[in-house]
Every structure is written in C-alpha cells, then in structure tokens.
Design goal:
Blueprint: E1 3-7, H1 15-23, E2 26-29, E3 43-48, E4 51-56, H2 76-89, H3 95-108, H4 114-129, E5 135-138, H5 148-159, E6 163-166, H6 176-181, E7 185-188, H7 210-217, H8 221-225
Parallel strand pairs: 1-2, 1-6, 2-5, 6-7
Antiparallel strand pairs: 3-4
C-alpha cells in the first residue's frame, strides 16, 4: 500500500500539518490551485502576551492567481517576522537551537514566490527538525487536467497511490464513493488528543505555528505530534 497526502503549502504550519506528512509515504504540494486570501497560505498564528496573533506575509490583494504564482515584494516582511519571532520566543528553552537556520531563512535568503518559501520551510522542518522520512512531490510535475476531487484521484493514479490521507475539513467536498470506486482507501486524519506542553502566555492553544512547539520542546517535538500515540510522550511538566 502506498499512502499519499496532497495539500496546499502553508506558511510555517501547525503541528497537525506535519502529522499528516509523517503518516504517508508521499506528500504532494498542490500549489497550482486558486490562491485564497485570509487563509493559511501566507499566514499563521503565534503566541504573544496579548494572546494569539497572526504573522502574515504580505502578498497584495490580487485574487486571480494560483498559489504558485503569488509573488513576494521586497524582503522587509522577512526582517519584520524574524524580529517578532525573536521578541516572542528569544527566551524559549530551545530558541538558540534553531536560531541560525531561521536567521538564514529570514535574513540570508531572498524569496520571490510564496510557494517556494512555504515548501522550503516545510521540507526542512520535516526532515531536519522532526526526522520525517516522507518523500515530497509537486502537483505541477504531473500535467493534471481534471478538477476538484477528480483531480486528486487523477494525481493519485499518476503516483501509484492506493491510500489517501486527508484532513477532516475535506469531508465537505470530497466524495468518498469516488475513491472507493477507484480502488483508493480514504482516511480522515484525526487531530484530537494532542498533549499539551508549556507555552508562553496561557491559555494553551494547539492551533499555532509549529515554531511554538520547536522553540519550547526542541528534539522532543515529534513526541507531541505523533509519538504520544505510542505512549512515548514526555509529560509537559518535564519542561
């Protein structure tokens, strides 16, 4: 069985995004789709003393473009994001462990496309920080012609996928019967049950960027994403 997940790239996504990546053999970025504003493509949430706030990459107001076509302007947004992250997490237990990497991402690299930024961060965090061995792909490499859920099934056929893992939000538009008739097992990801860990500025919030988890627990981050299901998670009080 070849397990596959397909999703649009998000900006420094939450831990659940990486949970799905860990679940599959192949994770395909699906960025040749319509860009949607006020979504996760160009922003995510971080903890602040004033509560949870958005960290947003400015991309303009043009809605008539694909995600992979979204261009980024000058690098001022990157300097601003890094300044805010240092202010919010500079005293976190494991901030220094990741500082050099993010310093290079935000100050040492010039990003021209949102998709390139998102995919780079997701791949590097997955492989280098979470130890995920999943293979990554890009839907633009497969000359797709179909739309909506038929496009997903078309892509799964091209990569030899026999099992598809999807987030629960897709229940509203994916037709389960179409997957069954195509010989593809469809599984809905369950995000419930994640253990808590020490966060700055209570109350605890699961739905924040993966950076919060990395900076607070370091190499033990996988235990709080998927490892706890096997009983390997350290209790939050250890931190």
């Amino acid at each position: 069985m070849k397990r596959v997940a397909i999703n649009q790239s998000n900006y420094i996504p939450w831990k659940g995004y990486f949970d799905i990546i860990h679940d599959v053999d192949l994770f395909i970025f699906h960025d040749d789709l319509q860009y949607t504003k006020n979504d996760w493509r160009n922003r995510n949430r971080v903890k602040t003393p004033q509560g949870v706030r958005w960290l947003t990459v400015p991309v303009g107001r043009n809605e008539h473009r694909l995600i992979c076509e979204v261009a980024l302007g000058d690098n001022q947004w990157a300097k601003d994001h890094w300044r805010k992250l240092k202010l919010l997490y500079g005293t976190a237990p494991y901030f220094r462990k990741y500082r050099a990497f993010f310093d290079h991402v935000y100050l040492g690299m010039k990003w021209e496309r949102l998709s390139d930024l998102n995919q780079f961060l997701i791949k590097m965090i997955s492989r280098d920080f979470l130890g995920i061995t999943t293979t990554f792909g890009d839907s633009r490499d497969y000359s797709l012609v179909k739309k909506k859920h038929e496009r997903v099934i078309e892509l799964l056929g091209k990569v030899g996928g026999t099992a598809y893992v999807s987030g629960p939000a897709a229940k509203s538009y994916l037709d389960h019967s179409c997957f069954l008739s195509s010989g593809i097992e469809l599984t809905w990801k369950d995000y419930t049950g994640y253990p808590t860990y020490r966060q700055f500025s209570p109350p605890f919030d699961h739905a924040v960027s993966i950076l919060d988890l990395l900076f607070m627990v370091g190499d033990d981050a996988p235990s709080f994403i998927w490892g706890w299901r096997g009983g390997s998670c350290k209790k939050a009080k250890d931190y």
